Amino acid sequence: MKILYGVQATGNGHISRARMMARYFSKKNIAVDYLFTGRDKKDLFDMQCFGSYSHRKGLSFNVSEGQINYFKTCTDNQLLRFFYDVLRLDLASYDLIISDFEPVSAWAGKLKHKPVLGVGHQYAFADKTPMAGDNLLTRSIMKYFAPVDYPVGLHWAAYNDYTLPPIINTDLKRQHSNNKIVVYLPFENQQRVTRILNQFPQYNFIQYAPAVHEAESYNVTTKKTCYEGFKEDLSLAAAVICNAGFELVSECLYLGLPVLVKPVAGQMEQASNARALQSLGYAEVMNVVNFTSIASWLNTVAAAGPVKPLPIPNVAEALVDWIEQGQWQDRKTLAQQLWQPLQPAMGCDQRYSFNQPQYSF
Question: Pfam families recorded for this chain (predicted)?
Answer without folding.
Answer: Glyco_trans_1_3
